[in-house]
């Protein structure tokens, strides 16, 4: 209940508010272009008060990044029900929605991390912090996909396909952000199809992968994204 | 002709020798673990003499990286003769051979660049130098592929497929380096097949891409890598 009186925020509440404000700013412009003054203004507090909660832009950036990483990792979670193609399609929808929301910040981060170091410490520690966060999200995505495939001890070829597809999804999203020249919905479907295609390439030469692919396809409905792809690909064959 | 007398090297010759020695060391261990003392010892000169040619490890690292980037970009060059599948297979062979030769250095570089900054300047400039070099190699690969496809003004979907495949090749190589659990020759073929598969996925929903794919496939021989893939994929279909 609000009393109309502006109440003082607690320390943790204020920190969380600042992280939210910073994440919003870091998402819409390159983090290098966002100043502490702007963050203070957007949060409605003074510059020294920002420094009271965060020693510098770097620590605020890392906190914002941590929140974004948790958000993104959460988007890979999907109930293990129904056909795999539909599940992946929903996950890709949430992934590209995240990329859309955090465009410039996502680009800056994935292109070697931001150089948020003006006047601050060397970027070395930031690079390892951001790399660790990015890796944690990749690992969460990888674990999710394996769980959906029902595999606990992935053979080397499966690990390669899943991890390289995750990397393909990242780079596809990054390339798409540069101009957004392809409808997002098309990209979501394409990434799901890419997963099927990369798996099929591996399965074409390896019986273990072929068995896995057959098990997945056997559960796909005739009107699902995988079945549609196979029909369309067959029409392309010479 | 050698006279048996150890002659003094010229400035440029000595610089090139140091770059070669450094590249060799930076390739086989993480660049952070290579000291100027080691480089001096491997080159058979004193530590102060190394500093006479390069102000520090950072500049020597960048020079080594520049040479490696030129080497790698050169490996994408391939005569525009014969079927595309065979050409791509030769290029992938040279690419993975490069990755094999420069393993730890390649990994360190692609995982956010090395933090070669101990006692030196902040990593900020290094990050932008390494990013620019990596981008120049990616662009060289992209230009080569487009030239082989005979395309001068690529539609957005083709650009996305080619660039995202280049990124897939990078990540596949990086993942492979971690344990080398799959034979290299298999990986070379798989990357060529991945290119065909990603193109086919895009072509399944876009007539312009479908035309391009048909034009490529029409020139493929019955015993080429693309034809073999299609046969094997057809055998997988439910």
UniProtKB/TrEMBL annotation, chains A, B:
Keyword Transcription regulation appears in the UniProt entry: yes
Keywords linked to the UniProt accession: DNA-binding, Transcription, Transcription regulation
Protein name stated in the entry: TetR family transcriptional regulator
Annotated Gene3D superfamilies: Tetracycline Repressor, domain 2
Keyword Cell wall biogenesis/degradation in annotation: no
PROSITE patterns given in the database record: HTH_TETR_1, HTH_TETR_2
Residue span, HTH tetR-type domain: 12-72
DNA-binding residues (ranges): 35-54
PANTHER family (alphabetical): HTH-TYPE TRANSCRIPTIONAL REGULATOR RUTR, TRANSCRIPTIONAL REGULATORY PROTEIN (PROBABLY TETR-FAMILY)-RELATED
Pfam families assigned to the protein according to its UniProt record, in alphabetical order: TetR_C_46, TetR_N
Superkingdom as given in the UniProt entry: Bacteria
């Amino acid at each position: 209940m609000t009393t109309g009186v502006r109440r003082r925020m607690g320390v943790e509440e204020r920190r969380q508010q600042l992280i939210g404000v910073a994440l919003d700013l870091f998402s819409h412009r390159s983090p290098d272009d966002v100043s502490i003054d702007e963050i203070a203004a957007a949060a409605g507090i003074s510059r020294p008060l920002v420094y009271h909660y965060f020693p510098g832009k770097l620590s605020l950036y890392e906190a914002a990044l941590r929140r974004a990483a948790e958000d993104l990792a959460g988007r890979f979670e999907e109930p293990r029900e129904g056909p795999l193609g539909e599940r992946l399609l929903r996950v890709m929808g949430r992934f590209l929605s995240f990329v859309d929301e955090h465009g410039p910040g996502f680009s800056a981060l994935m292109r070697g991390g931001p150089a948020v170091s003006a006047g601050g410490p060397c970027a070395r520690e930031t690079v390892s912090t951001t790399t660790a966060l990015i890796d944690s999200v990749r690992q969460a995505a990888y674990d999710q996909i394996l769980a959906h495939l029902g595999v606990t001890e992935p053979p080397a070829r499966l690990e390669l396909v899943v991890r390289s597809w995750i990397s393909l999804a990242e780079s596809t999203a990054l390339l798409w952000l540069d101009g957004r020249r392809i409808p997002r919905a098309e990209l979501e479907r394409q990434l799901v199809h890419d997963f099927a295609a990369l798996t099929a390439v591996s399965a074409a030469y390896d019986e273990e992968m072929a068995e896995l692919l057959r098990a997945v396809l056997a559960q796909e409905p005739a009107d699902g994204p995988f079945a549609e792809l196979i029909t369309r690909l067959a029409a392309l064959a010479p």
